[in-house]
Amino acid sequence: MASTDGKYNIKAIAKMLDLQPGTLRAWERRYQFIEPKRNQAGHRLYSEEHVLILKWLINKVNHGFPIGQAIDLLKKEQEPTSKLNVSTNEDYTVQLAEELLCALLSFNENQAQQLLNKAFSLFSFEKVSIEILEALLIKVAALWEEAQITKAHEHFVSTFIRVKIGQIYQGLPVNSFLPKVLLVCGPDETNDLQLLSFSLFLRRKGFSVLYLGEGIPAEDVELVLNETDASIFITSCTHEKNVAKTQKLLLTLEEKKRALTIGVVGAAFLQLQDKKWTRFLIEQNFEARDSWIKKIITDN
């Protein structure tokens, strides 16, 4: 039987279950299905039993049940909480991304907006950004490159995502004590969606970000770095044909600006094995990005 002792605060629960703290508070306030204990400071403390209950509810919601109906089902369950049938959220984020893509490829903006709202209500900002929005951008780019969708489809999907990212972007505060970051696509790169997603990740962390995207000549990058006093440079390389030019840019900047921190995102660099180049790589999962950022903050 699961322990009923208070063990986890709401921040730990939110991270464990990829559930927004505000959503959890709203569920508790409206349905009163669990009663967390409180510590001396009055903060909620959740038990292992609460975790099992929440996992069970999230699983039901992920399969289409309204939360009120899911809680009604929970109350009718005859099994003890230790035997509740629960599953992780991983499959549902994939499902949501696929449903969102289907809606957008059908030019159904209203349905797409509803699905995105649902994702943000259930999961953390980082999970939606990386596992749904960025995964969607990468898939759309691949479908376009493989001629499986038209330019009209690609443009509609990318515009929808850009607008949503832009709306989030503007409301994020900047920490003036963190270093400035310049983001520019690698030479001849035309797909800036992954770099755009990473710029949002950095803004979420409080960095001052100058995002220039695609079409910036390599010779202009050093000029912009000098004028903006940016101490971090991040570029992208998604096409294998552009790897050599991107490598040349990285070496040039590293030689001329030894204090500059350089990073690269993109599928083309993921294929490289030589440590001479993999040392620049920032993998696209949240843990890798977060670890890279923490190291940057420590070094600066």
Automatic annotation (TrEMBL):
Record keywords: DNA-binding, Transcription, Transcription regulation
Residue ranges of domain HTH merR-type in the record: 7-76
GO terms for MF: DNA binding; DNA-binding transcription factor activity
Matches recorded under SUPFAM superfamilies: Putative DNA-binding domain
Pfam family, one: B12-binding_2
Gene3D superfamilies given in the database record: 1.10.1660.10, Cobalamin-binding domain, Methionine synthase domain
PROSITE patterns: HTH_MERR_2
Domain of life: Bacteria
SMART domains recorded: HTH_MERR
PANTHER family registered for this protein in UniProt: HTH-TYPE TRANSCRIPTIONAL REGULATOR MLRA-RELATED, REDOX-CYCLING DRUG-SENSING TRANSCRIPTIONAL ACTIVATOR SOXR
Listed name of the protein: MerR family transcriptional regulator
